[in-house]
Write a sequence for this structure.
């Protein structure tokens, strides 16, 4: 299937530049759950179940949602690959925490 770019919630941005990194996958985050980290965790754990170690997260949502998604990816893979919008395009930034 190729690499996936996970977009956390519907923020109304133009994500077309991110398509050069992989297939865009929109993960719905329940709006009523934004104050309930456990509910955000449950929703993201389900939404990210098909994630692979080389997939990406787009950083464009509430910090708590990004933090939970990051924690899930690091727990599963020891790293997380971010796409950050900068200077009118997405740039890749990787965080590697795997001590193995």
């Amino acid at each position: 299937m190729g690499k996936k770019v996970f977009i956390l919630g519907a923020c109304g941005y133009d994500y077309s530049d991110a398509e050069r990194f992989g297939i865009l996958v929109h993960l719905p985050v329940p709006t009523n759950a934004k104050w309930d980290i456990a509910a955000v965790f449950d929703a993201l754990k389900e939404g990210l179940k098909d994630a692979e170690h080389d997939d990406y997260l787009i950083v464009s949502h509430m910090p708590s949602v990004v933090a939970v998604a990051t924690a899930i990816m690091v727990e599963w893979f020891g790293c997380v690959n971010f796409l950050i919008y900068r200077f009118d395009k997405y740039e890749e930034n990787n965080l590697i925490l795997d001590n193995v």
